[in-house]
Each structure stands twice: as C-alpha cells, then as structure tokens.
Amino acid sequence: MDFLNALVVLSNFVLIPAVAYGSQLALGALGVTLIYGILRFSNFAHGDTMAFGTMVVVLVTYLFQSWGLSLGPLPTALLALPFGILGCMALVLVTDRTVYRFYRQQKAKPVILVIVSMGVMFIMNGLVRFIIGPNDQRFADGERFIISVREFKQMTGLSEGLAIRTTQGITVVTAIIVVALLFWFLNKTRTGKSMRAYSDNEDLALLSGINPERVVLYTWLIVAALATVAGTLYGLDKTFKPFTYFQLLLPIFAAAIVGGLGNPLGAIAGGFVIAFSEVTITYAWKKVLKYLLPENLEPSSLVQLLSTDYKFAVSFAILVVVLLFKPTGLFKGKSV
Amino acid sequence: MSNNPYQDDRGNKDASITKTGGGTMQVSTGTDHAMSTDEAFLIGDSMTGGYGKSGPDILHDCTIAVNKGEIAVIVGPNGAGKSTAMKATFGMLHLRQGSVRLDGTDITGLTPQARVAAGMGFVPQTSNIFTSMTVEENLEMGAFIRKDDYRQTIEQIYDLFPILRDKRRQPAGELSGGQRQQVAVGRALMTQPKVLLLDEPTAGVSPIVMDELFDRIIEVARTGISILMVEQNARQALEIADKGYVLVQGRNAHTGTGKDLLADPEVRQSFLGG
C-alpha cells in the first residue's frame, strides 16, 4: 500500500507533469531541429515565433469566448488553433521573404543567419508585447480535470490522490498526433522526402531538380504549425506570458542538442530527457520517500535538490555536459 | 603579318612596276589533328575558362565530344583539368570562350539543373548519394523532376545493379564504396538521361569492383546512353573507351579512339607508364 501511494505521489507530481512538459518541449525542439536541418542555422527566434502563434490563438480564443462559442469540456483554444497556425505561417513567411531570403541569395554563411535570427527574435518579441502586452494571459477554459484528486481517492481508496488535468491529456494526445503526422510527411510523401534530401546533400538535391525555395517554404510552414501547437499547449498548461516563451528557448535548444540537432527523433527524446531532469531535480522528494523508507530513515528536509527558480540551470547544465562529452547528441545529429 | 619572305615587298609602292590590290583572302583549314566532333551528341567546343568570373583560366581551347551511345573518356595527369573539363560541359565553370551543345542545341547558358531537365545526368566524384536515405529513396529523388510513373525505371536499375534490389531498404550511407557508386549512377539514370557524366566513378574502390563497375558502364552505354567519363585508371578506361581525350594543362594533348591512344607510343610513354 505504501509502495502504491508512493507511486501515485510520484505520478501526480513528477511523471505526469514531466510527460506533458516533455511533449511541449519536444514539439518546440522539432521546429528548431527542422530549421537547423534544412536551413542550416539555429533559429533563435523560435521561442518568439511560438509566442506570436500562441498570441493569435489567445486573441481568437477571447473573440470566440465573447461570441459564446465553445467546445464544451475541451478548451476553446483548440478551435482557435488553426487561426493561430495561419497567423504564424503568415508571420514566418513575411520574415523569410523580407529577411532570410536576402541572406540565402547572398549565400551567407550560416553563422550570419544565426545572428540575423537573433535580430528577428527581438523584433518578434517586441511585436508580441506591443500587441498583447507583457502580462499573463489565462485562456484555458472548459473542464479542468480528467480525473481530480477526490475522484481518484474515491475510486481507489488510496490515501494519496492523482489528478490529470485536461490540458495535460490534450497535450499528450495532440503531441502524438502531430509527431505521427510529421513523421508520415517526412518519410512517405514526395515533398517530405525532398526536404530530407535537401537537408542531406544540398548540391545533389539541386542536381535532382529539387527547388530549394520550395523546400524552404514548406519548412517554414511546418515550423510555424509546430511552434503554434507547442506554444498553445504550453500556454494552456501554464499561462501565456511573452517573456516565458523567450525563456523557453533554453530548454528547447537543450532538448534539440541533447537529442542531436537535425534529427527529429532526437528532438523528441531530448524533450523528454530535459523535462524529466528538470522536474525530478526541482521536485521535493520528501513525500515519496516517506512512503518508501522505513520510519527511522524518514528525511527531515524537503529533499529538493534545486529550487524551482533554478530549473533553467538544469537544462543549461545538461546542454554543457552533452556538448562536452557527446556533441552530436544521443541520436546521431549533425552538430559537432 | 606573315613571315613568308615571298610576301615581303620591302616597302615598294611603285605602281609603274606593280599593280596594287591583288587578292588578300587567306585559305587555312583544319586543326592539323582530328577533333572527331562530326557526330558528337554532346560537345564542349573549344572551351576556355576557369572557376568564377575572374579566376585564372584552367581550360585552354579544350574540346570534348561524345557520340550517341559511345563512351568517351578523359584521362591525363593530375591537375590536367580533367574534372574541370567535364564540369564545364555541365555548366559549373565560367566559360570565356567556346560553347556547349547537346544534340545540336546550344546549352552554354543553361544552369546545371536545366541541363538535367534537358537530358544530362551527372554523377559527382564525392557526396554523390543521399547518405541518410534508403537506396530506394535515393532513386526516387533522382526521379524528382519526372511527373510520370517511374517504377519501371527503378526496376530497370535494379536489373542493372541487382545488389541494390537486396539493399533497397537500407540507408545508402551504410553501403560499401562500390555499392555507393552504383546507387549514385542509378540515381543519375532515374531521369532517363541521354548523356551521363561520370566523375571518376572508380575512385577508391578495389580493382575487382572497378572491373565490375566498368562492365556496368558498358551495359549502360549499350542502351543508347552516351557516357562521358573522367578516369584516374587511364589504361582500363581507355580499353573500354570509344574515344579518349588526353588533357595536359587544360589543353587537348591527344585525341583518338581508345585503341589508338593505347597504341600511341607517346601517350604510353607519358601517361600510361610505358
């Protein structure tokens, strides 16, 4: 019984939140890794691209709410998601036409594009704060829990409860669907294969008649969709605040690099590695240990390795360790 | 102008003894050596040029031609501009002089991609496959510009290179050197080109694999595809060549059928090691 209780506590506070957070990071890291693989630079503006897409979703959600439109138990944001994706696609395409395309035509070295993306990041960052303001926006509505603590206790008779929030359920389900669609697209369709070919060998792709501008266009469209979905899921799970999205850049990059930049599978694995490390290291283990250890060994402190304020230090530390010891990442990526 | 002493009148202007205004047209024909470009399907005609708009000239009045269904081989010492000459026919070199014609049409101004669409296939010397993609996906990418059904062509390539059929689901990067070259040639054949350009197809493969590759190349040529090939292994390459070009410092040094060149004492002496 003690063991089961420990397991329930662990699931409630570590496993389930980490799976949800990991899915969000994985979707973000997929976008970063796609840009890296195909446009060959690390896109620092990715966090703010997510913020822009999510902002459109939030605004459209507010509009729908004012019209009284809703999805019942599901959050209205899901209904607004397609509009957010379209808005984000428009943004990245305008950015690509006005900024990145110039540097592609100059055949600029990728490092220049990295710095360019930083400039884009600041502009997008300002744009989002200008439109929606720097404050927290809560836009999640509908049913709050799939299983609440009280229901769970009644169902099982355990003294510890387990809650699964609707947003966590939606996050995982959406992430699975999106990832499945993405892999199907990359591995089975002609356009997806041409994107992989371009990423693999640009010259040969050109000789095979693959149009680079077209590949770049599709990449941006997919990245915009991924970024908006990731941002919206994160916003539903927590809240939407532009600055948080800028900060998300670190765990997302850590995830992409841990998994191996340019490798979509790696991005997903990396997302979960980062999420689980962050959550387990900043979690106070006292409650779990109380159930597992004999009474005389019961810890008196919280057994929290790091305060949650330092959670970014975890992804940063992992990033440094990976770059030092396995620069190509867990799966074979391209960065060295 | 001329150094013919009989044409020097030592400044005579006396019209009372000579009448001015005779015929001045000079007749001079030929290059004094056979260029054999009469039936050329693909010809890089007297090409002069180098990399970039301002780079030094690498090719000097160099002519390379290949007839329909024949194998032409470019050989020569290191740094003779063999690969450069072939790349020039494929639009990867800035030509200051000369032209490239495919089946009588001038293609000098076309980009490499456009030349692929016009019926040329090119197999670069290095990174000539998509290493992270399977053999079959490599072939599919080769057929990217084709809008019709290309399954038939894939089957033909599997018939030509049976080993690829067994490895169709394997990433091409995991194959051996010889198999990679087969994938590379197969990919270029997917567009059903009329001319195939091969840049040192046997570089870095064992002699046995090399012989097999040459056999396959002959088979490809028998299907009516012209082949222009740069080779380091001059002797073996000239043995299968209908026409050989020996380049030295970006110039045509010797031209002839493969057999002629192999028999030519000068060519043997300088390039084939006796």
UniProtKB/TrEMBL annotation, chain B:
Gene3D superfamilies cross-referenced by the UniProt entry: P-loop containing nucleotide triphosphate hydrolases
GO terms, biological process: L-amino acid transport
Source superkingdom: Bacteria
Region (Disordered): 1-31
A Pfam family this chain is assigned to: ABC_tran
SUPFAM superfamilies (alphabetical): P-loop containing nucleoside triphosphate hydrolases
Keyword 4Fe-4S among record annotations: no
Compositionally biased intervals (Polar residues): 15-31
GO MF annotation, one: branched-chain amino acid transmembrane transporter activity
Domain ABC transporter span(s) in chain numbering: 35-274
Xref: SMART domains: AAA (SM00382)
CDD domains: ABC_TM1139_LivF_branched
InterPro entries assigned: AAA+_ATPase, ABC_transporter-like_ATP-bd, BCAA_Transport_ATP-bd_LivF, P-loop_NTPase
UniProt keyword annotations, A-Z: Amino-acid transport, ATP-binding, Nucleotide-binding, Transport
Family: Belongs to the ABC transporter superfamily.
Protein name per the record: LIV-I protein F
Biological source species: Thalassovita autumnalis
